[in-house]
Amino acid sequence: MFSRLLAPVLLFLSLGFGARADVLPPSAPVEERVRHLLAQMTVEEKVGQLVQYSSRDDMTGPAEQSSITPQLQSGGVGSMLNVVGAAETRRWQKIAVEGSRLRIPLLFAYDVIHGYRTIFPIPLASAASWDLARIEEAERIAAREAAAAGLHWTFAPMVDIARDPRWGRIAEGAGEDPFLGSAIARARVRGFQGDGSFADAERILACAKHFAAYGAAQAGRDYFTTDVTERVLRDVYLPPFQAAVDAGVATFMSGFNDIDGTPCSASPFLLDRVLRGEWGFKGFVVSDWASVGEMLLHGNIADLREGALKAFLAGLDMDMQSDAFGPHLAALVREGRIPESRLDAAAGAILTAKFRLGLFEDPHRYSDETREKTLLGHPDHLAAARDLARRSAVLLKNNGVLPLAGSGLKVALVGPLADAPLSQVGTWRARARKEDTVTVRAALRQLYGDGLRYAFGCDVRGDDTTGFAAAVETAQASDIVIAALGEDASQSGESTSRTSLDLSGPQLALLRALKTAGKPIVLLLMAGRPLMLEPVAPLADAILMGWHPGTMGGPALADVLTGAYNPSGRLPLSWPRSVGQIPYFHAHKNTGRPAPLREGDPYYSRYIDSPNTPQFPFGFGLSYTTFAYDQLRLSSPVLRDGGVLTITVRVANTGARTGEEVVQLYVRDRVGTLTRPVRELKGFRKIELAAGEAREVEFALGPADLAFWRGDMTFGAEPGDFDVFVGPDATAKLTASFRLE
Q: pTM (2 decimals)?
């Protein structure tokens, strides 16, 4: 009893002698604490919780305001983004807590996309690992470092399905497939948030973005409009968001795009009907940068007041940087155009997050400079980053030149990305430091010493070829050439759409020049998206897709190149032959003319200048060993309602090295009331097998795994015949059939 009476006193003292907030003790349920605090707040203070501004020190978009200190002191701001560092967050928090009437703490948010100081591979690369446990661990470490720097909230994970590699933000997601994307969404949310208790101040709020179908931008052009049917939206683009909700994600971010003519930030269908009504989401929704204001340019509002009204009534809770909610919502509430119950729900959801994070007990709980110095770039974090980077690399071609031989080998390392620390880190590099990044050149120098010879060759852009002669001379004096080519960090990510996905600048010409040296060539690609390799592949004896691998990318790729690690990465998206095939994805629909109706008949779905097939299929990746699949069997030829079908396959390592294989299960619905995809991923297992070892791998399928949005827009499975395919990628040949009854 005494402890319960003492708790409010301790809280009073922790906030300072001038504290005026009457806050229930931590032992009270969060819902009661929120209601109690809301009862003390004015309409303006409630609106203040819905306002987010950026520090001008680190902008991710245009801004106008010069100082928000007066608004902080009046309780007019609930959150800030781009305020980073334990000392800086403590300074801003002190202004907000000590200067405002109710001393409500701020939320500090930042784009912690694939690491904070220790940078992991870009999200598309980590998706190529198909390793959910290590993806989760990467986000746990990112949260740990960000939390130590005073941050409470990350604008990640991006769970947008993307099927057009012209769209630069494909680098930030998990690729083209809803099943894989959903599994990775759950893993990333768990990594950031843990069990959601935030007991140890080493977890942060996650944010599922961009709701929804932002990755379906027409023409692959960022911020552009989308045109997807509700059925495609629900079957393809929404499942990873629902998976994030199921994993307990605390927040959502609305997309820049529109859906069926309504910008996402003002879509009652998305924010109210689906997110809260159908999925039961209890957190809050923040706009993307100034997206409420951008509705003016979309053309569906006349002014910011109308934008604030439409977005807030639709279900948007926090306005990032538009300056729409702050100036207008209070008046709209007083006019009766917005119910105060709606305002209480939005402010209450944000206050709930602050209570869950323990900020009312200690507003500076996350701003610990000692912990910040200890944890940022910790050796354990660097080791995890190296491990995920090597697991993410995908071996696309190998004519026997990899792995490289050991000491005594003369290696020519050529290209603009061999020693480019910031480009190696990639898009959204948070607080990465150039001096912390270990490049490929540095890692190979450690292995080969004077046997490594380096030549820059050319830049990734421009037309300067003056470095070619030195590059060719270096190649001629070596046993093997590693050409580190691709994209620099500014060529993929937000606002980096491309119409050509060829190697930019003089890089292809450099590769052709290197070919004249007559030495084997390993193409080490570093990029944030697939690049078109039809003219490139014949010039290389091996191709390793290293993506933008992060802080420890150099040692990780050296591990793969030398065979210290056997590559196990698999593509999380189909790799087109040319931009003319885009969008290309494995789960496409069939057509009435998928093949010639008779020999020599040209009237079928095809290109006259290219095969229909991709350069590399979804799920593809080579190893330094080989795997064989056989003995596929089903537990029954019939799957009944409420039942489970077990699918078993034997996988054997038929090579001479231990290796990891990603065993993939695909399903096809032969006949539906609607046309169905030719194949859909329904399961995967990543297993390690010693040389000569064989193992049985099991998958379980239930009727729910076969469900889709049917013609009447109900969700469920349809009875009928199904095929299963098991193998190493989306072209898996081993097949069996069953019937759903």
A: 0.95
